[in-house]
Specification:
Order of helices and strands: HHHEEHEEHEHHHHHEHEHHEE
Number of helices: 13
Structural class: alpha+beta
Helix content: 40-55%
Largest sheet: 5 strands, mixed
Shape: globular
Protein backbone atom coordinates (compact mmCIF):
# COMPACT_ATOMS: atom_id res chain seq x y z
CA UNK A 1 0.00 0.00 0.00
CA UNK A 2 2.85 2.39 0.80
CA UNK A 3 4.81 1.53 -2.36
CA UNK A 4 2.26 2.57 -4.95
CA UNK A 5 2.58 6.37 -4.47
CA UNK A 6 6.39 6.01 -4.46
CA UNK A 7 6.30 4.06 -7.69
CA UNK A 8 3.94 6.62 -9.17
CA UNK A 9 6.26 9.44 -8.19
CA UNK A 10 9.23 7.56 -9.63
CA UNK A 11 7.45 6.94 -12.93
CA UNK A 12 6.33 10.56 -13.09
CA UNK A 13 9.90 11.71 -12.45
CA UNK A 14 11.28 9.29 -15.02
CA UNK A 15 8.74 10.52 -17.53
CA UNK A 16 9.76 14.09 -16.81
CA UNK A 17 13.43 13.27 -17.29
CA UNK A 18 12.62 11.53 -20.56
CA UNK A 19 10.64 14.52 -21.76
CA UNK A 20 13.49 16.83 -20.77
CA UNK A 21 15.98 14.63 -22.60
CA UNK A 22 13.84 14.46 -25.72
CA UNK A 23 13.14 18.17 -25.52
CA UNK A 24 16.85 18.86 -25.10
CA UNK A 25 17.68 16.71 -28.10
CA UNK A 26 15.04 18.46 -30.20
CA UNK A 27 16.35 21.85 -29.09
CA UNK A 28 19.94 20.91 -29.92
CA UNK A 29 18.92 19.48 -33.29
CA UNK A 30 17.18 22.78 -34.04
CA UNK A 31 19.98 24.94 -32.65
CA UNK A 32 22.68 23.04 -34.56
CA UNK A 33 20.58 22.66 -37.74
CA UNK A 34 21.26 18.92 -37.61
CA UNK A 35 18.77 17.96 -40.28
CA UNK A 36 18.74 21.22 -42.25
CA UNK A 37 20.67 22.22 -45.35
CA UNK A 38 22.65 25.37 -44.50
CA UNK A 39 21.01 28.54 -45.80
CA UNK A 40 20.66 32.23 -45.08
CA UNK A 41 23.00 35.19 -45.38
CA UNK A 42 26.30 33.25 -45.42
CA UNK A 43 25.14 31.35 -48.50
CA UNK A 44 23.27 34.12 -50.34
CA UNK A 45 26.30 35.08 -52.50
CA UNK A 46 25.84 31.84 -54.45
CA UNK A 47 22.43 33.04 -55.71
CA UNK A 48 23.19 36.77 -55.86
CA UNK A 49 26.41 36.43 -57.85
CA UNK A 50 24.84 37.64 -61.14
CA UNK A 51 22.20 39.88 -59.62
CA UNK A 52 20.75 42.63 -61.81
CA UNK A 53 21.85 45.04 -59.06
CA UNK A 54 25.47 44.38 -60.03
CA UNK A 55 25.01 44.07 -63.78
CA UNK A 56 27.52 45.95 -65.97
CA UNK A 57 29.48 47.31 -63.01
CA UNK A 58 32.85 46.25 -61.54
CA UNK A 59 30.92 44.87 -58.56
CA UNK A 60 29.59 42.11 -60.82
CA UNK A 61 33.13 40.85 -61.27
CA UNK A 62 33.72 40.85 -57.52
CA UNK A 63 30.45 38.94 -56.96
CA UNK A 64 31.82 36.20 -59.21
CA UNK A 65 35.30 36.40 -57.71
CA UNK A 66 34.22 35.69 -54.13
CA UNK A 67 32.81 32.31 -55.19
CA UNK A 68 36.26 31.07 -56.19
CA UNK A 69 38.16 28.20 -54.65
CA UNK A 70 40.48 29.28 -51.82
CA UNK A 71 42.47 27.59 -49.03
CA UNK A 72 40.42 26.51 -46.00
CA UNK A 73 37.71 28.93 -47.16
CA UNK A 74 39.78 31.74 -45.66
CA UNK A 75 38.64 34.12 -48.45
CA UNK A 76 41.91 36.08 -48.17
CA UNK A 77 40.92 38.97 -50.40
CA UNK A 78 39.88 42.58 -50.56
CA UNK A 79 38.87 44.23 -53.85
CA UNK A 80 39.55 47.93 -54.36
CA UNK A 81 37.25 49.30 -57.06
CA UNK A 82 37.24 52.22 -59.41
CA UNK A 83 35.32 52.65 -62.66
CA UNK A 84 38.11 51.23 -64.82
CA UNK A 85 40.20 49.14 -62.47
CA UNK A 86 40.01 46.52 -59.74
CA UNK A 87 42.96 45.94 -57.42
CA UNK A 88 43.06 42.47 -55.89
CA UNK A 89 44.59 42.73 -52.42
CA UNK A 90 45.90 39.87 -50.32
CA UNK A 91 44.51 40.20 -46.81
CA UNK A 92 47.53 38.70 -45.08
CA UNK A 93 45.73 38.67 -41.72
CA UNK A 94 43.67 35.76 -43.07
CA UNK A 95 46.68 33.47 -43.41
CA UNK A 96 46.98 29.82 -42.37
CA UNK A 97 50.16 30.19 -40.33
CA UNK A 98 52.38 27.11 -40.46
CA UNK A 99 50.01 25.55 -43.02
CA UNK A 100 50.94 28.25 -45.52
CA UNK A 101 54.02 30.05 -44.17
CA UNK A 102 54.88 31.79 -47.45
CA UNK A 103 51.29 32.68 -48.48
CA UNK A 104 51.67 30.41 -51.51
CA UNK A 105 48.22 28.88 -51.15
CA UNK A 106 46.78 32.30 -50.37
CA UNK A 107 48.06 33.54 -53.75
CA UNK A 108 46.70 30.46 -55.52
CA UNK A 109 43.30 31.33 -54.03
CA UNK A 110 43.64 34.92 -55.25
CA UNK A 111 44.44 33.56 -58.72
CA UNK A 112 41.22 31.54 -58.57
CA UNK A 113 39.25 34.71 -57.81
CA UNK A 114 40.95 36.50 -60.72
CA UNK A 115 39.93 33.73 -63.12
CA UNK A 116 36.28 34.00 -62.06
CA UNK A 117 36.42 37.77 -62.48
CA UNK A 118 37.91 37.54 -65.96
CA UNK A 119 35.20 35.04 -66.93
CA UNK A 120 32.52 37.40 -65.60
CA UNK A 121 33.84 40.44 -67.46
CA UNK A 122 32.41 39.83 -70.99
CA UNK A 123 28.97 39.05 -69.58
CA UNK A 124 29.05 42.51 -68.00
CA UNK A 125 30.36 44.48 -70.98
CA UNK A 126 34.06 44.51 -70.11
CA UNK A 127 37.32 43.41 -71.61
CA UNK A 128 40.17 42.82 -69.16
CA UNK A 129 43.91 43.15 -68.85
CA UNK A 130 45.41 41.35 -65.85
CA UNK A 131 48.63 42.68 -64.34
CA UNK A 132 50.36 40.59 -61.66
CA UNK A 133 52.56 42.13 -58.99
CA UNK A 134 56.13 40.94 -59.47
CA UNK A 135 58.33 39.58 -56.73
CA UNK A 136 58.87 36.63 -54.42
CA UNK A 137 56.51 35.21 -51.85
CA UNK A 138 59.52 34.84 -49.58
CA UNK A 139 59.72 38.63 -49.25
CA UNK A 140 56.10 39.46 -48.36
CA UNK A 141 55.44 40.94 -44.95
CA UNK A 142 52.42 39.35 -43.27
CA UNK A 143 50.83 42.60 -42.21
CA UNK A 144 47.79 44.31 -43.64
CA UNK A 145 46.74 44.40 -47.27
CA UNK A 146 49.22 43.65 -50.05
CA UNK A 147 48.34 44.18 -53.70
CA UNK A 148 48.59 40.95 -55.67
CA UNK A 149 47.19 41.98 -59.04
CA UNK A 150 45.24 44.59 -60.95
CA UNK A 151 42.47 44.01 -63.48
CA UNK A 152 42.12 46.90 -65.92
CA UNK A 153 38.68 47.24 -67.47
CA UNK A 154 37.76 48.46 -70.94
CA UNK A 155 34.29 48.69 -72.43
CA UNK A 156 33.78 45.81 -74.81
CA UNK A 157 30.92 43.74 -76.15
CA UNK A 158 32.09 40.16 -76.40
CA UNK A 159 30.56 36.73 -76.11
CA UNK A 160 30.71 35.27 -72.61
CA UNK A 161 32.88 32.23 -72.01
CA UNK A 162 30.72 29.10 -71.53
CA UNK A 163 32.43 28.52 -68.17
CA UNK A 164 30.83 31.70 -66.84
CA UNK A 165 27.62 29.75 -66.21
CA UNK A 166 29.57 27.12 -64.24
CA UNK A 167 30.73 29.59 -61.57
CA UNK A 168 27.90 28.83 -59.08
CA UNK A 169 28.13 25.08 -59.80
CA UNK A 170 31.72 24.72 -58.55
CA UNK A 171 32.06 23.35 -55.01
CA UNK A 172 34.78 21.35 -53.31
CA UNK A 173 33.50 17.80 -52.99
CA UNK A 174 35.06 15.85 -50.09
CA UNK A 175 32.85 12.76 -50.41
CA UNK A 176 34.06 9.46 -51.82
CA UNK A 177 34.03 9.28 -55.62
CA UNK A 178 32.89 6.42 -57.85
CA UNK A 179 36.24 5.15 -59.07
CA UNK A 180 34.67 2.29 -60.97
CA UNK A 181 33.24 4.80 -63.48
CA UNK A 182 36.70 6.08 -64.26
CA UNK A 183 37.22 9.56 -65.67
CA UNK A 184 35.54 10.84 -68.86
CA UNK A 185 37.94 10.68 -71.80
CA UNK A 186 36.59 13.79 -73.50
CA UNK A 187 37.15 15.91 -70.38
CA UNK A 188 40.60 14.42 -69.93
CA UNK A 189 41.48 15.46 -73.46
CA UNK A 190 40.14 19.00 -72.92
CA UNK A 191 42.06 19.46 -69.70
CA UNK A 192 45.25 18.13 -71.24
CA UNK A 193 44.91 20.42 -74.25
CA UNK A 194 44.52 23.53 -72.08
CA UNK A 195 47.10 22.57 -69.50
CA UNK A 196 49.08 25.76 -69.02
CA UNK A 197 52.00 27.62 -70.58
CA UNK A 198 55.76 27.99 -70.23
CA UNK A 199 55.40 28.88 -66.53
CA UNK A 200 52.50 26.63 -65.46
CA UNK A 201 51.99 22.94 -66.25
CA UNK A 202 49.31 20.36 -65.53
CA UNK A 203 50.04 16.65 -65.01
CA UNK A 204 47.14 14.19 -64.88
CA UNK A 205 47.30 10.56 -63.75
CA UNK A 206 44.52 7.97 -63.93
CA UNK A 207 46.56 4.80 -63.35
CA UNK A 208 50.06 3.39 -63.22
CA UNK A 209 53.14 3.85 -61.07
CA UNK A 210 52.93 7.65 -60.86
CA UNK A 211 49.23 7.52 -59.87
CA UNK A 212 49.96 5.04 -57.07
CA UNK A 213 53.05 6.94 -55.89
CA UNK A 214 51.16 10.23 -55.76
CA UNK A 215 48.40 8.62 -53.72
CA UNK A 216 50.98 7.35 -51.23
CA UNK A 217 52.63 10.78 -51.10
CA UNK A 218 49.29 12.40 -50.22
CA UNK A 219 48.71 9.97 -47.36
CA UNK A 220 52.28 10.22 -46.05
CA UNK A 221 52.15 14.02 -46.09
CA UNK A 222 48.82 13.97 -44.24
CA UNK A 223 50.35 11.74 -41.57
CA UNK A 224 53.22 14.22 -41.18
CA UNK A 225 50.82 17.16 -40.86
CA UNK A 226 48.69 15.42 -38.25
CA UNK A 227 51.85 14.75 -36.23
CA UNK A 228 52.75 18.47 -36.34
CA UNK A 229 50.98 20.22 -33.46
CA UNK A 230 51.43 23.74 -34.83
CA UNK A 231 50.01 22.83 -38.24
CA UNK A 232 46.86 21.20 -36.95
CA UNK A 233 46.22 24.05 -34.50
CA UNK A 234 46.58 26.63 -37.29
CA UNK A 235 44.25 24.58 -39.47
CA UNK A 236 41.74 24.04 -36.66
CA UNK A 237 41.48 27.78 -36.06
CA UNK A 238 39.43 27.98 -39.26
CA UNK A 239 36.87 25.37 -38.22
CA UNK A 240 33.45 26.87 -37.42
CA UNK A 241 31.44 25.14 -34.70
CA UNK A 242 27.81 25.38 -35.69
CA UNK A 243 25.54 27.78 -37.59
CA UNK A 244 25.83 30.68 -35.13
CA UNK A 245 29.59 30.82 -35.52
CA UNK A 246 29.30 30.52 -39.30
CA UNK A 247 26.70 33.28 -39.38
CA UNK A 248 29.19 35.52 -37.59
CA UNK A 249 32.33 34.62 -39.57
CA UNK A 250 30.92 33.62 -42.99
CA UNK A 251 34.20 31.87 -43.77
CA UNK A 252 36.17 28.82 -42.71
CA UNK A 253 35.31 25.12 -42.67
CA UNK A 254 32.08 23.50 -41.47
CA UNK A 255 30.88 19.96 -40.89
CA UNK A 256 28.36 20.26 -43.72
CA UNK A 257 31.16 20.42 -46.31
CA UNK A 258 33.45 17.85 -44.66
CA UNK A 259 32.28 14.91 -46.76
CA UNK A 260 30.67 12.98 -43.90
CA UNK A 261 27.86 10.48 -44.42
CA UNK A 262 24.38 11.74 -43.39
CA UNK A 263 24.36 9.60 -40.24
CA UNK A 264 27.87 10.60 -39.20
CA UNK A 265 27.17 14.25 -39.99
CA UNK A 266 24.06 14.25 -37.79
CA UNK A 267 25.96 12.60 -34.94
CA UNK A 268 28.86 15.04 -35.28
CA UNK A 269 26.52 18.03 -35.16
CA UNK A 270 24.90 16.77 -31.94
CA UNK A 271 28.26 16.39 -30.19
CA UNK A 272 30.61 19.15 -28.98
CA UNK A 273 33.34 20.10 -31.45
CA UNK A 274 36.32 17.77 -31.41
CA UNK A 275 39.74 19.10 -30.41
CA UNK A 276 42.29 19.61 -33.18
CA UNK A 277 44.06 16.26 -32.63
CA UNK A 278 40.88 14.21 -32.96
CA UNK A 279 39.39 16.14 -35.87
CA UNK A 280 42.62 15.92 -37.85
CA UNK A 281 43.02 12.23 -37.04
CA UNK A 282 39.58 11.81 -38.62
CA UNK A 283 40.79 13.83 -41.63
CA UNK A 284 43.74 11.46 -41.98
CA UNK A 285 41.32 8.54 -41.91
CA UNK A 286 39.23 10.10 -44.68
CA UNK A 287 42.33 10.79 -46.76
CA UNK A 288 43.64 7.25 -46.38
CA UNK A 289 40.36 5.34 -46.59
CA UNK A 290 38.20 7.48 -48.90
CA UNK A 291 39.81 10.41 -50.68
CA UNK A 292 42.79 8.66 -52.24
CA UNK A 293 41.30 5.17 -52.85
CA UNK A 294 38.18 6.55 -54.56
CA UNK A 295 39.95 9.02 -56.85
CA UNK A 296 39.67 8.27 -60.56
CA UNK A 297 42.24 10.95 -61.35
CA UNK A 298 45.05 12.61 -59.43
CA UNK A 299 46.51 15.84 -60.74
CA UNK A 300 49.47 18.13 -60.12
CA UNK A 301 49.83 21.79 -61.11
CA UNK A 302 53.50 22.78 -61.32
CA UNK A 303 55.35 26.04 -61.87
CA UNK A 304 58.94 26.95 -62.62
CA UNK A 305 59.31 28.72 -59.26
CA UNK A 306 56.93 27.81 -56.45
CA UNK A 307 57.58 31.06 -54.61
CA UNK A 308 57.23 33.44 -57.54
CA UNK A 309 54.14 35.59 -56.99
CA UNK A 310 52.91 35.80 -60.61
CA UNK A 311 53.39 32.06 -61.11
CA UNK A 312 51.39 31.27 -57.96
CA UNK A 313 48.57 33.49 -59.19
CA UNK A 314 48.72 31.83 -62.62
CA UNK A 315 48.55 28.39 -60.98
CA UNK A 316 45.38 29.52 -59.21
CA UNK A 317 43.84 30.69 -62.45
CA UNK A 318 44.53 27.29 -63.99
CA UNK A 319 43.09 25.41 -60.99
CA UNK A 320 39.91 27.48 -61.05
CA UNK A 321 39.45 26.97 -64.76
CA UNK A 322 39.85 23.20 -64.71
CA UNK A 323 37.57 22.99 -61.66
CA UNK A 324 34.92 24.92 -63.59
CA UNK A 325 35.44 22.65 -66.60
CA UNK A 326 34.89 19.64 -64.37
CA UNK A 327 31.85 21.16 -62.67
CA UNK A 328 30.23 21.86 -66.04
CA UNK A 329 30.71 18.17 -66.85
CA UNK A 330 29.29 17.00 -63.47
CA UNK A 331 32.72 15.84 -62.29
CA UNK A 332 33.84 16.46 -58.71
CA UNK A 333 37.21 17.85 -57.68
CA UNK A 334 38.95 18.28 -54.33
CA UNK A 335 42.36 19.77 -53.41
CA UNK A 336 44.72 17.30 -51.72
CA UNK A 337 47.59 19.72 -51.36
CA UNK A 338 49.24 18.10 -48.35
CA UNK A 339 52.42 17.03 -50.24
CA UNK A 340 53.19 20.66 -51.09
CA UNK A 341 52.21 21.97 -47.65
CA UNK A 342 54.87 19.73 -46.11
CA UNK A 343 57.42 21.13 -48.60
CA UNK A 344 56.67 24.60 -47.25
CA UNK A 345 56.81 23.38 -43.65
CA UNK A 346 60.18 21.66 -44.08
CA UNK A 347 61.57 24.82 -45.64
CA UNK A 348 60.20 26.96 -42.83
CA UNK A 349 61.78 24.72 -40.18
CA UNK A 350 65.08 24.30 -42.07
CA UNK A 351 64.58 20.54 -42.35
CA UNK A 352 65.78 18.17 -45.02
CA UNK A 353 63.65 18.54 -48.17
CA UNK A 354 62.16 15.04 -48.08
CA UNK A 355 58.77 16.16 -49.37
CA UNK A 356 60.35 17.88 -52.38
CA UNK A 357 62.26 14.72 -53.23
CA UNK A 358 59.09 12.65 -52.82
CA UNK A 359 57.24 14.66 -55.47
CA UNK A 360 60.23 15.01 -57.81
CA UNK A 361 60.46 11.22 -57.89
CA UNK A 362 56.90 11.21 -59.24
CA UNK A 363 57.10 14.07 -61.74
CA UNK A 364 60.68 13.11 -62.74
CA UNK A 365 61.51 16.70 -63.73
CA UNK A 366 63.11 18.96 -61.14
CA UNK A 367 62.75 21.98 -63.44
CA UNK A 368 59.01 21.95 -62.62
CA UNK A 369 57.99 22.49 -59.00
CA UNK A 370 54.62 21.08 -57.89
CA UNK A 371 52.46 23.70 -56.17
CA UNK A 372 48.98 22.14 -56.16
CA UNK A 373 47.68 18.56 -55.91
CA UNK A 374 44.08 17.44 -56.36
CA UNK A 375 41.78 14.50 -57.07
CA UNK A 376 38.79 14.14 -59.37
CA UNK A 377 36.07 11.68 -60.29
CA UNK A 378 32.35 11.05 -60.56
CA UNK A 379 30.74 12.12 -57.25
CA UNK A 380 28.70 9.75 -55.09
CA UNK A 381 27.01 12.74 -53.41
CA UNK A 382 26.54 16.36 -54.35
CA UNK A 383 28.63 18.85 -52.42
CA UNK A 384 27.01 21.71 -50.52
CA UNK A 385 28.03 25.33 -50.94
CA UNK A 386 30.42 26.84 -48.42
CA UNK A 387 29.75 30.14 -46.70
CA UNK A 388 30.92 33.41 -48.25
CA UNK A 389 31.44 36.93 -46.96
CA UNK A 390 29.29 39.47 -48.75
CA UNK A 391 30.42 41.65 -51.64
CA UNK A 392 30.03 44.71 -49.42
CA UNK A 393 32.35 43.23 -46.79
CA UNK A 394 35.24 42.63 -49.18
CA UNK A 395 35.14 45.75 -51.38
CA UNK A 396 36.67 49.19 -51.05
CA UNK A 397 35.88 52.02 -53.46
CA UNK A 398 38.32 54.71 -54.52
Amino acid sequence: MTRSPTRRRFLQAAGGITLLAVGGAIWRAHDREVFVTPSGAPYDPWTLWNSSEYKNTPVALVAAGILASNPHNTQPWIFRLSDKQIDILADTSRNLGSFDPYLREMHIGLGCAIENMVLAAPANGYGTEVLFEEGSLLEIEKSGLVRAATIRLVDMQDQADPLYEAIPLRHTNRYAYDRERGFPEDLLRRLTAASGNEYVALSLFTEGEAFDALGRAIIEATEEIVADHAMIEDSHAWFRDGPDEMEKERSGLALDTAGLSPALLAAAKFLPALPAEQSHAAWLGQTRDSHVPSAALLGVISVRNRYDRPQSLAAGRLWQRIHLEASAASIAMHPLNQPVETIDRERELGKEAKSEARLTAITKDASWQPTFVFRAGYPTRSALASARRSVETVTEKT
